[in-house]
Amino acid sequence: MIPSQMLKGTLEGSILAIISVQDSYGYEISRQLEKFGFGNISEGTIYPLLLRLEKNGLILATYRESGKGPKRKYYQLSDSGKNELKQFFDSFEELYKAVHQLLKYLGEDNQ
Amino acid sequence: MNSKTKKLLHENNEFEKNLNDMNKKSLTDIVVYLRGCNISEYHQEEVRKDIMQMVADGEARNENMKSVIGDDFKQFCDEIVNAFPPRSKKEKILVAFSEAFSLSSLMLGIWLAGGILEAVLKKTTFSALFLTLGDVINGLLIVTIAIGIVNFVCKTSFKPVKKSNRIKSFLVTWVVLFLIFASIFLISHFLTFNLVSIPTIGVVLLIVGLLAVSRFIDNVMI
Question: Which positions, given as ranges, span the membrane (chain B) (predicted)?
């Protein structure tokens, strides 16, 4: 299980990545995250992040018909969201390389 | 409250009826908590709509609210509030003015109704509203206490009521209520100095004007 503190920094970027593939809504996003190995993340965790992304103009929300209840809120990536996603990938790659180097160094050191 | 918010509030009230009783209760706690938070009424209703959609979808999947939202509703609400950009100084001032105007019009309405009722009972004519120093102080006192009670209820909406504390709370409530009413009575009895008199038409225009400005600010603030 990924610790929540570690997830915090990557969840917003990962949500943007999921939405970049296809317009989606809260529950679907949480299931997608689970499918990719992020663990069981409730909609209650996702919703405030979606709200922040929306208020910052990184995603756009549209209401569409759903089977039950009021129209469901679907999210799509905005142009600023696309730039933010690219920055997230660049930063994450940098972090990944750094951690990978560290692990490699520790591995060599142990041998 | 502006018309856009009223419309959404009405839609949400209608939809809430479809949720099961347990979810309705939890949702009420969430909404009450959000009412006391520093976000606009429209945003409160917008969030309420989204949460109800989540809960309704959860019901359709036979999931309870805790599995949809998580165990900590308060943290969920706090994260929602933090997701909104903080209000600027200008916005904070406008909100304060809107609330002050709205409350002032309410107090003027109460004083006007009280004055008319008194005139009817005494079979005299009501031509102007006379406000004593005691009336104004009591008005401020009532508004402050009302705001305090609302804030207390909102901030403690997730706190379970302990059975052992019920008697204590009951007694404290009655003592506090007695002190409040005694203060109001003493203030209105002793501070009878006439502060201002406003003709009836002036009071009506003032109420309408204050409400209009408050409504205008609410519309600007969405």
Answer: 93-117, 137-158, 170-191, 197-217
- Partner-chain contact A49 B15, CB within 8 Å: no
In chain A, how many H helices and how many E strands?
A: 4, 2
Rounded to the nearest angstrom, the minimum Cα separation between B150 and chain A is 25
Q: Note the ipTM here.
A: 0.83
The answer to whether the Cβ–Cβ distance between A42 and B53 falls below 8 Å is no
Query: Are B62 and B20 spatial neighbours (Cβ–Cβ below 8 Å)?
Result: no
Q: Distance (Å) from the C-alpha of residue A68 to the closest C-alpha of chain B?
A: 7
Model confidence pLDDT, tens digit, residues B82-134: 998 888 888 888 888 998 999 999 999 998 998 899 889 988 888 888 888 99
Do B93 and B72 share a structural domain? no
Share of chain A above pLDDT 70, in %: 94
**Which CATH architecture is the domain A4-110 placed in?**
Orthogonal Bundle (1.10)
CATH number of the domain within which B35 lies: 1.10.1900
pLDDT digits (tens, 9 = 90+) for B36-72: 888 888 899 999 999 999 998 888 888 888 889 988 8
Where would I find the beta strands (DSSP E) of chain A?
Answer: 59-64, 72-77
